[in-house]
Amino acid sequence: MEGLPQALLEQIIKRITRLTDLNSLSLVSKLLYTVESENRYSICVGCGLYPAKLAMASLCSRFPNLCKVEINYSGWTAENGLQLDNQGLSVLATCCLSLTDLTLSFCSNIDDSGLCWLAHCKKLTCLKFNTVPGISSSGLFTVAVDCMSLSALRLIGLKKVSSVNWLEYLGSKGSLEELVVVACKGISQYELLKFGPGWMKLQKFEFDEVKGRYKIEQPHDPSHMAQYQYKYDFCCESLKVLTLAQIVTLPEIGLRFFLSKCKSLEKLSLHYIVGIYDSDMITLSHSCSNLRSLSLRLTPLFIGGLEVRDVRTPLIDDSLKALALSCPMLETVELTFLACEPAYPSEISFTQNGLVMLIQSCPIRDLILTGANFFNDEGMKALSSAQYLETLELMDCVATTDTGMRFLAHTPRLINLTLRQCHGFSDHAVTEVAHARNLESLVVEGCRRISLKAVQGAAKSVEYKVDGPGLSGVNRA
Predict the structure, then answer these.
(1) CB 3.0-4.6 Å disulfide test: which of 31, 274, 279, 382 passes with 356?
(2) Which residue windows are coiled coil (predicted)?
(3) DSSP β-ladder status, 301-302 and 311-312
């Protein structure tokens, strides 16, 4: 190894992705130690960083070319020692001059004053704060002013942010291409409108208020005026990825205005939103002919009837029809239905006919259905003629049985199959499909009638869990 040219050693090291392998490789020789250190561009550290400041200095010295750093104290306890503080952050900022991507997660000892050090990171383009309790609006304004190259900002679980002067400043600069705001109590959907001209360049936007389904308060848009909504007349035609989750858009417009303006939109996720109507989806389909991915997560809402269970999901087949007619590039679809009782099928306003129409009209390659009580064996039969379908994921689809599963054996391109908590399928039908399709991957979780023996060797990659997702009993073959 000592005789190999350094350029060749660098190429070898770049092909090694597992951290344990890289650490072992660096122990083989001094040359490999040096080459590996110079070519390590990213690290993730946290509870093992002790003493934090000295350990950070040592890491920065050993890996001089670090570009991406994540400091994550998830699961931290007092026994792990003191966390990295503002002084430790100063070491990182002043020593890692190539830093472009920084993530701070669950860092309790870093606050607004520590963020001043980020001004030294002249190349910093991506910054993520995840549950950093000491950061407030003041710290974010410091970041907005000092981090001149910033193009991506992700804020998750920041409780002390109470104003958006920093957002207005970033909007006036117009430099951000990605903005993510999740579970930040002091930032409402209407305050985000103050981003103003910043929307012109933004390509990815995600906003999730993360409020309880039955505890969502009606919003109030202070800029709203009946028949005169000038605050919404700005351009966002560069936006390609949009995620809106757990917000209420009634009675004012709020972030619904995106659905009529994002002509470049390629990926859309609408999760548990109150105030989205079929008219919005029809407008969207007419505006977004480039749409490639759609994720809808819906839950029944009270519709004002007299019956005790007069609830249903907010969208009907008119939305699916509009997408089928106007979105010829749609290839990934996720439909999730939360808290819909199988005993009350009318709670889901989509029908199987509407879904089949969408599948037959668009080149759907990836289909994910969760809690789709209306989807039965006839729907599975329709999938057997889906010309582009490669990946199918079914979870808690109670109306599908072995009869429907056997139809999948004739699906032309199916190579990836995932079944979660689907109790209508048995060993025989799944094995039949696996043998007919030469599956690349098969995932079975919490399906009580499917055994480990049946799935072993049924695909190139097999994952089997006795219980539901995320529980015990994992076997891989």
Answers:
(1) 382
(2) none
(3) antiparallel
Reading the block at residue 233, the tokens are: 């007349």
Identify whether the C-beta of residue 105 lies closer than 8 Å to the C-beta of residue 130: yes
What does the alpha-carbon distance between residue 242 and residue 262 come to, in Å, rounded to a whole number?
Answer: 9
CB 231 within 8 A of CB 257: no
Could you tell me the two tokens for 354? 């509407």
Length of the chain in terms of residues written = 477
Q: What is the pLDDT of residues 375-430, one digit of tens each?
A: 999 999 999 999 999 999 999 999 999 999 999 999 999 999 999 999 999 999 99
In sequence order, what DSSP letters do the residues of 376-400 get, joined into one string? -HHHHHHHTT-SS--EEEEES-TT-
The contacts found for 164-168 with CB under 8 angstroms, 24 or more apart, are 164/137, 164/191, 164/192, 164/194, 165/137, 165/141, 166/137, 166/140, 166/141, 167/140, 167/191, 167/192, 167/194, 167/195, 167/198, 168/194, 168/195, 168/196
Do 164 and 192 form a contact (C-beta atoms < 8 A)?
A: yes
Q: What is the DSSP letter of 160?
A: B
Q: Please, which residues have CB within 8 angstroms of residue 54's CB and are 6 or more apart in sequence?
A: none
And the tokens for 73?
């104290």
Query: Token pair for residue 45?
Result: 């550290």
Considering only residues 78 and 308, tell me which one the structure prediction assigns the higher pLDDT.
78
- Give the residue ranges of DSSP H helices in 63-154: 86-95, 112-115, 137-146
8 Å CB contact between 200 and 173: no
Residue/partner pairs of 10-17 with CB below 8 Å, 24 or more apart: 10/35, 10/39, 13/39, 14/39
The structure tokens 């079975």 sit at 444
Give residue-wise pLDDT tens across range 194-231. 898 999 999 999 999 876 544 445 556 666 666 555 56
CA–CA dist 133, 371 (Å, integer): 36
Tokens found for residue 124: 């910093």
Classify burial at 453, counting beta carbons within 10 Å of its beta carbon; exposed 0-12, middle 13-18, buried 19 or more: exposed
CB 184 within 8 A of CB 157: yes
Q: Which residues contact 234 (CB under 8 A, 6 or more apart)?
A: 196, 197, 199, 200
- CA gap 97, 78 in Å, rounded: 31
- C-alpha Rg value of the chain to the nearest Å: 26
HSE toward the beta carbon, residue 61, CA cutoff 13 A = 6
Query: From CA 219, how far away is CA 168, in angstroms rounded?
Result: 21
* Residues 28, 30, 36, 42, Cα dihedral to 10°: 100
* Token pair of 180 as six digits: 């993510």
